[in-house]
Amino acid sequence: MNRRTFLQQSGKIGTAALAAAAFPKLIYAGNSQPTLKVIGTHVTLLEPIRQQAEQDLGIKIEFYPSGDAEVLLKAATDPTAFDIYEQWSNSIKVLWQAKTIQPIDTHKLKYWHEVNSLSKLGRISEQAKPGAGDVPNKILYVQQDGNIGPHPTQQISFLPYVHNVDSFGYNSAVVPKGIPYKTESWGWLLDERWHGRVAIVNSPEIGIFDLALAVQAKGLMTFKDLGNMSREEVDQLFDIAISLKRKGHFRGVWTSVPHSVQLMASGETVIQSMFSPGVSALNGMGIPCIYAAPKEGYRAWQGVMCLSRACTGERQKAAYAFMNWWLSGWPGAFIARQGYYISNPERSRNFMSKAEWEYWYEGKPATEPLQGTDGKISVQQGSIRTGGSYIKRFENVAVWNTVMDTYEYILTKWNEFVLA
Amino acid sequence: MNSYWLKIEELLPNLLAHTLGLKKRIILGYIFTGTVAFVIALLAWGTFNRFSNDLHQIVFFSRHARENITFAAYMAEMQREALIYIHEGHNSAGEQVGVVYKEMIGSIGGKELPNAELILVQARTHLTAYYKAFQEVQRQRNIRERLVKIELRVYAVRAQQLIEELTRQEKIENRLECARMLNSFLQIEKNAYRYFDSLDGKFIQAASLRLQETRFILKKFTWSRTEELGSVLNQYESAFLEAVQRTRGYLYLVNVVMAAEAYETMYQAQKLSNLMISESEQIQGKVTAHISSRLWLLLLSSALLLLCIILFSYVITRSITIPLKQLTKTFKSLAAGSSEAEIPVYPLADELGALTRAAASFKAKNIELETSKKALEKSNDELEQFVYTVSHDLKSPIVTSMGFIAIIRKLADQGKTEQAFGMLDKVAKANERMSQLISDLLELSRVGRIDMDTTQLDLDLLLADFSSNQAERLAQEQFSLTIESKLPTILANESRILQVFENILSNALKYANQEKNGCLRINTYSDEQWHHLLCTDKGPGIPEEFREKIFGLFYRLDVNIEGTGIGLAVAKKIMRLHGGDIWAESGPEAGAVFHLIFPKATTG
Asked: CA-CA 20 to 30 A from A179: which of A118, A330, B29, B427?
């Protein structure tokens, strides 16, 4: 048995032991075992996670993964359709307004005290840039008046768990390689050299920030509050974007991660909005896609886990168990291998090898080839994660994904942009 | 180079002439010409077939280009109908979207195009997603319409009725508060409808605040139906919030999902169109290039094949004319009587082969004629010599006799009778010699004319008898005859062969036994063609210059030795009549050797 095999095997044993120790199974009598319905996206509703949770918790869990908008609409209109809702923090305002979710009691959250300052205070460190938009803490706490706000209380609107920063990706075989945080800029999206080979994610509450950051980086306009644009600002932004689109600058919008991969793999685009799995997939295909670390800062997102208003009794108990399980370490380590962070990283550290921790969280070169969640090598030895460590990446957040007050108006403008 | 070409020029026709018969060559020529014609026809067929395929492809592209244009038109129509439905809510437009969708899905063509598969898959995927989103839009719109136009009104009417009922039942001093509540509630409605009208999110907030206000006012009353009113307010709020979310979902589907899918579908259609144009241009280029290249190919191939026909015809013609020319030359030479005319080598059994064999026969006849002519000339020479010799040698005894007769007359006139009589013996002797000469000549003339029946002769037996018959004579002459055993058996005339050995023996007795105790030894050996018999004596031998002459008529080495000089000529004639020969050689010990050969073919 060599060192690597030993580490892998001891890691697995350790993982199982830790999970077993952390989660005594919930005991239910007879056939009263509840079934937990979880709706969300393919980012976190993964079969290995479901199986592991069922095994650890001893409950039945059903995952209903779907598209962002579909999931949000379902959650915002039918609280009986789910027990747990998993998505992004930009859906919190909608759900809270729709009153389809209920507050979560922090004292029922076993690891709440371990959740780091990024979620609780909106900054990973004192040096961190204050990001625009719905910084997680601004929409986290249930205030006395029933609204959500930044002042800490014992009730929260969502459990902060998975999060990451996004930017744009570029094919370094075509686009000259830049220097992270120094030359790499959102303005590259509007660079005339890449005319006709630029794509934006087809999600207005996300894509609008990519456009806004690009326009701002190019000096074409500024925003009073990037995270809450006025109608006039929206108009101006879309005037620029639509004008560029009519001139053929944009190839179009992409509607899914596979679509984004296909666009760049086919050469139709060389630079575009990007999600981490898309970058990994392209690299796996041998396309040197670099996930930029823009000097203007990242567009960050916070994964949220919400409790349905209709979730009560045994199902609510199971839902809390499921939320606690998510922060118990194993799931955090699992999604770390996809490039995502968990809100209490130190607990997941025990479930990761030293090399994994150093690569994914500390931004150090991989000391050995690292496997992804599918068991295949996703990181070659010597690779360094673009943007550096977890701390450094979240110290450079320009804006958080946000549903702005002008959301409906943005939707109509988005339509104009897409069809332009 | 020229010599090389000449070699080739000769080599090929010769090779052909030595391989294939005349008829086959002519047939081969026709087959080759036919094949060439067929190949040219095949090339022409290939050219026009390719051209036909190209035309098919052009037609195919034209059809798909038309379908593609139709596809884009369909997409525009579907968008138009969808927008009518979205903005006007006409169900017929919504249904038409489904009809157009089905038409489009059925008409997506061009998958036979290279590189089009992925585009078509994507076009189909996005089109399907578009229609799926539209169906969801219809569903969301229906729900929203139900919420906004039915449920909200129902709850609003009920809430208003309850508030008005409360107003009627309350004391006058409380009615102002009731009016405030009603006003607040109406503000909820107003904001709600403003939101649905303007889609401005601030009206949601405003409606929510008015709801809170209404609830706050309601709490001031202790009316028995307060709870019912509160419940209606909750139902109204719930319906409103759901309607807001349905509106947002609806807007998202229309403005984000459908828009993107429509764009992508159109983009893929455009991409397909570009691909078709590109392919069409390529095909156009290819067709032009194909026609040009094929025509050139056809032309060059035809030229090349015609050249082949010319070369092949030349080779075949040469393969016929070369032997014919050679034969003509040969026959001319043969007709001139040549026996040395060159017969061309022609191994095949065709007409030229028959001519060649005829020429060979002709030549054989000429050779035979030449041989006969030479033999005749020699015979004439011999005859002249013979006449001369005979007349000379026969004249000699007559002259001698006439001389002696003149002497006798003279002696008789002188009366010298005795002397005259004495001379008569000499006359008689001369006449005897003449008689002997005539006898020998008669014998010579008989050889070959009579008594030439041949039988198998065992020379062992024949010469044994001969030796036995000559024993007394040999004893008298003190001459020994040694005959080796195992002599061959030959096909010959017995008496003539005995005559040959008799003449050889007589010759030996005359020339090789002058001092007595001479000998003659007969031995034999054979080769592939002949039986050789060597008759060797120990006499003085025969000088080389006389070895041929001694076989001539009347030739004697020593005139002092009795003889007519005809014996060896007879022997030579007998041997030649038997297909053999005889000649003289020097012996191993200075004697003479008479070498006889008998052909094996005529022996047993």
From this structure: A118
